[in-house]
């Protein structure tokens, strides 16, 4: 029983420390938005990935970088309406 409590306390610590790990009340939309933003940030941080995207899309590197930053604003569309309690 002590191990179970320890695992839950470690998970709660990680969830409070890192935003992207979620928590018990994280919705599917929030989770997917975090995943998409993390992916786009990784792409922006790796110069070779931007070069690859530019070649595949036949766009300039600046345009690809701009498009990725634009997608980071709302990668999964507008948030869904929350039902009232």
Structure overview:
Keywords: mRNA processing, mRNA splicing, Nucleus, Spliceosome. It comes from Capitella teleta (Polychaete worm). This is Splicing factor 3B subunit 5. This protein has helices at 2-17, 28-45, 47-57, 61-71. With 85 residues, the chain is mainly alpha-helical. It has a domain at 27-72. The mean pLDDT is 85.
Largest sheet: none
Helix content: 55-70%
Note the run of SSEs as H and E: HHHH
What percent of residues are in strands? under 5%
Distance between the termini: 35 Å
Mean pLDDT: 85
Rg value: 18 Å
Outline? elongated
The count of β-strands is 0
Structural class: mainly alpha
Protein name: Splicing factor 3B subunit 5
GO cellular component, one term: precatalytic spliceosome
Family: Belongs to the SF3B5 family.
Keywords: mRNA processing, mRNA splicing, Nucleus, Spliceosome
